[in-house]
Amino acid sequence: MVAVATLPRPAGGFGPAAGVRMVGNETVKALQVMWSHKATLVPQLGFMAIMFWVIQFFLGGGRVLDELVALTLFGFWAYVVGYLALLRMAAGVLEEKFTGTLEQSLLGPLRPAVVSIGRLAAVLTEGLVTALVASGVTILVFTVAIPFRPEALIPILLTLVDLAGFALLIGGLALVVNSIGSIIHVIQSVLMLINGTFIPIYVFPDWLETLVKFAPSTLGVDVIRRLLFAEQSLGEVWSGGHLPLAILHAAAMFALGWVVYQGAIRRGLRDGRLG
Length: 275
Fold this sequence. Notes:
Elements: H1 16-35, H2 41-59, H3 66-99, H4 101-105, H5 112-142, H6 153-176, H7 184-194, H8 206-212, H9 218-228, H10 234-239, H11 242-271
Helix pairs in contact: 1-5, 2-5, 3-5, 3-6, 3-7, 3-9, 6-9, 6-11, 9-11
């Protein structure tokens, strides 16, 4: 019997255009699967938004402080994206593994990396749409003014790359250690407390502020805050070391997540553990 990992690929490989088309097809397929579970989307949105509002109410001493909501809204946005990305990458691959569809999706001519990119693009798209709707509703409900500068797109992109790497890491570990799926909510609850979702990290003690910068999305959210609310320039956040650290963290997290996830897929294909 020929192992799945040794099945031949097309002799000439795939050109760039074909590769982009395949990634697009995989993304659309994954989004269609997620849309089939759309009945959970509204409760999901409502729970995340209301939880944010309630905690803001307590932090404000019985009222919602517009200034605090504005300062922490990007942290909330990152939390929503990260939560859904982790949930879909870990719980999603485990569900497909137990039903046998994960292994089937890797039996065609597409390389596992292409399938992985399509899956990742889909979960990030779902997370982004959900986060933008939840954040937009919050802005409308509390009439919060959010300043914006084009430079902020850089840390926003870095935050997405950081969260994508973290989702890949947890998804890869879920394929090796099945029980990790049960602690995703714990992981995300901790991340929510330390990435600036409720209070900016600069109010933490110095030792804790240093420690939380190793967490996914924290550095990116802090750079966004510095650019938009502390009115620092791109040069200032670069010379201060905040932007280089965010770039380094995002690159390292994505590289680690990619290696772990692809390693878990290759191991599963070799040993027949994906079905």
